[in-house]
Amino acid sequence: MSIRLIVGLGNPGPEYEQTRHNAGFWLVDNLAGSTRLARETRFNALAAKTFVAGQEVWLLEPQTFMNRSGQSVGALARFYKIAPDEVLVVHDELDLPPGSAKIKKGGSSGGHNGLKDITAALGTQDYWRLRIGIGHPRTMGLQQPVADFVLHRPRQEEQALINDAIEKSLDAIPLLCEGKFEAGMMQLHTAAK
């Protein structure tokens, strides 16, 4: 078993491009490098097939809004017969501070609407998640509601920390694509504290 589909979560459109909720898109864009993601209307997404650590992997950025991400993920996974435990979903995480990133398999959505919809589309919670910390307005001393917080741009110092977590995550992803999950988790969890 290895990762065959890496999904970055975010909201489409230039008005959301720089918002915290698009951390998943940011990582997939970095991972794609010179590989261009193309519009795939049958999946309602931007997608590309690439190689990571010698393994063929699909990259996917749903072009639905966040709370309908499962439409794209489910459609591509069914079409290419990708099992839920071969899927890695990259998303913003309120419960982690900027600069940290964690990998886990399964578990609840933690109130994340994108994850709720993917769980419904795949019929299980047993897929991999790469959680990019964006912090929580309450722990950051902000009075901003969560929905407003995730749809705003991070402060400059937060963006630098988020970018650092993405870089460290990119180093661990090849191990996941080779099926070396424990090694990938250990590498990331010791690098991105």
TrEMBL record:
Which residues are tagged with the site Stabilizes the basic form of H active site to accept a proton? Answer: D92
**Presence of keyword Repeat:** no
In terms of Pfam families, this protein maps to: Pept_tRNA_hydro (PF01195)
- Molecular functions (GO terms): peptidyl-tRNA hydrolase activity
**Listed EC numbers:** 3.1.1.29
Q: Give the positions the UniProt entry annotates as the active site.
A: H21
Catalytic activity field: an N-acyl-L-alpha-aminoacyl-tRNA + H2O = an N-acyl-L-amino acid + a tRNA + H(+)
Q: Where is this protein localized, as stated in its record?
A: Cytoplasm
Binding annotation for tRNA = Y16, F65, N67, N113
Q: Which family does it belong to?
A: Belongs to the PTH family.
Q: Spell out the subunit comment.
A: Monomer.
Role = Catalyzes the release of premature peptidyl moieties from peptidyl-tRNA molecules trapped in stalled 50S ribosomal subunits, and thus maintains levels of free tRNAs and 50S ribosomes. Hydrolyzes ribosome-free peptidyl-tRNAs (with 1 or more amino acids incorporated), which drop off the ribosome during protein synthesis, or as a result of ribosome stalling.
* Name of protein: Peptidyl-tRNA hydrolase
Q: Which organism is it from?
A: Herbaspirillum hiltneri N3
User: What is the primary gene name for this protein?
Assistant: pth
